[in-house]
Amino acid sequence: MLSVRVGDQNYRVTNETLDRLFGIDRWRRFDSAVLANEIRQHHRAGALIIERRRLRLPSPSEEAERRLRSEDDPDEILRWGVLYLAAQLHEVATELRALRQGLQFDESAATARLSRDPAEDA
Description:
The chain is of the alpha+beta class and 122 residues long. It has two domains: 2-56, no CATH class; 60-102. It has six helices and four strands. The strands form two sheets. Strands 1-2 form a two-stranded antiparallel sheet. Helix 3 packs antiparallel against helix 4 (74-102). The radius of gyration is 23 Å and the shape is elongated.
């Protein structure tokens, strides 16, 4: 874990974030001052975002939202808008899968006829 000063605050950056940003262990060969400057530049460019006292990579939906807000070209707005929607759908699907795995589903209760099932009246 590395500590970097951005503005007037110190933020931590995990080794995993550095690996994803610069390449696995490639960042370890950088001079500490050069690495800190690179991290600040990535933060200014939006490639790193602040979460509490850490700098982290944005999620796909956060990245798409940032790009969507900064674009002027209608084609790029459409492209990033579609990517934003896809990222949001992926996040929702992931959450639904996690919920489904956490709950026991009683299939017999779901397929049982209701006491006032209109199919019985016909």
